[in-house]
Amino acid sequence: MAGLAAGIVSVMLLGGAALAEDKFSAVYVMSDNLGDMGFNDNAKTGFDRAAKDGVKVKLLQASPTDPQLWRQNLEAVSNSGDWSVIFTGPNMHDNLAAVAPQHPEQKYVFFDDELALPNVLSVKYAQNEGSYLAGVLAAIAATDKTDFPLSSGEPKIAVVAGMDLPVIQDFILGFKQGAATIAPDVQVQVIFIGNFNDAQKAYDLTKTAIENGANVVYNVAGPAGLGILKGAADSNKYAIGVDSDQNGLHPKNVIASMTKQIGNSIYDSIEQIRAGKAEFGKLKIYGLANEGVGLIYNDALVPAAVKAKVDEAKAKVVDGQLKVDTAFK
C-alpha cells in the first residue's frame, strides 16, 4: 500500500472505524474532483451510505486534465488486491477496457457507461426519460407567462451541454421530445461548451442563448454547469439543473433539477454484490420506472397544476404508453 499512496492524489477515506467487523471494501477511481454539486457529489452520497453500513470506502480524486493519473490509479488499486469491488465512471472506458481483463478475479462496477466484460457490472441511466420531463417543464415555463413571469411567452428554450457525446445526445433527444409535446413549434438551441469543466465558457454561452431568445436553459454540463445556472440567474431567466438537486443554488431561477440517482445506484450495486446477486457481465439500467432518474421541482416556482401536467407525462412513460427517443439503439 505504500507504493499506492505515491501515485494517488486527493484521497478520501470513509468509514474506517467499522473495518474490523466488515471486510467488504469499495474504491472509486475518479476522472474528476468532488465539489461539483452535481454528478460527482451525487455519486459520493452512495459511498457515504455504504460507509455507514461498515463498508471500507475510498474515493480517489484526480484532475480532469490528467488522464495519465486516472490510468495509474486504476492500475494501482487493481494490482493491490485490496478491494472487493472497484468503481469507475465517466471518461474511463478505454482505461477499464485495458485494465479489467488483466485482473479477471477483480470485480468492477462501471457506471454511466457500458463495457461487456465478465467481471464488469455496467450501470447506465435513462437520462433521456428524465430529460423528457425536463423538456415538458421547460416548454410550459417558456410559454406560460402567468405562472412563469420571467419568460417572454415564446416557445424558445436551450440546452447548454458539455460535449457532443452519445450520452449527451440522449439528454438532448429526450428534452426536445418532451418540449415538443407541449409546444410543437418549440425552438431548441443546442450549444456545446467543448468540455465539462469550463464554467466561465458555460456562463458566456448561456448568456448568448438567452440573448437569442431562450426563456429556459437546461444544464447538461457536469461541473461546468454551475456557470449555466449562474448565467441564467444573472440574465433573470429560468434554468433546469442536472444530476443532483441544484434548485437551491439560484432559487429564484432554477425551476427544477433532472436528477440521475447515481448515489442510489452505487449503494444498490454494493448491496447486490455483498448479497451475491449482482449480474456481472451485464447492463443494469435505472430509469423513471425504478426511480433511477427523476425531476425535483423548486416548489416556490412551480405550481401544483404544472407539476400535475409533468407527472401525467411521467406516468405515460412509466406504463409504456410513450416511448422516449434515445441516442442508443
UniProtKB/TrEMBL annotation:
<keyword id="KW-0732">Signal</keyword>
<keyword id="KW-0449">Lipoprotein</keyword>
<dbReference type="InterPro" id="IPR050957">
    <property type="entry name" value="BMP_lipoprotein"/>
</dbReference>
<feature type="signal peptide">
    <location>
        <begin position="1"/>
        <end position="20"/>
    </location>
</feature>
<dbReference type="Pfam" id="PF02608">
    <property type="entry name" value="Bmp"/>
</dbReference>
<dbReference type="InterPro" id="IPR028082">
    <property type="entry name" value="Peripla_BP_I"/>
</dbReference>
<keyword id="KW-1003">Cell membrane</keyword>
<feature type="domain" description="ABC transporter substrate-binding protein PnrA-like">
    <location>
        <begin position="26"/>
        <end position="318"/>
    </location>
</feature>
<protein>
    <submittedName>
        <fullName>Basic membrane protein A</fullName>
    </submittedName>
</protein>
<comment type="similarity">
    <text>Belongs to the BMP lipoprotein family.</text>
</comment>
<dbReference type="InterPro" id="IPR003760">
    <property type="entry name" value="PnrA-like"/>
</dbReference>
<keyword id="KW-0472">Membrane</keyword>
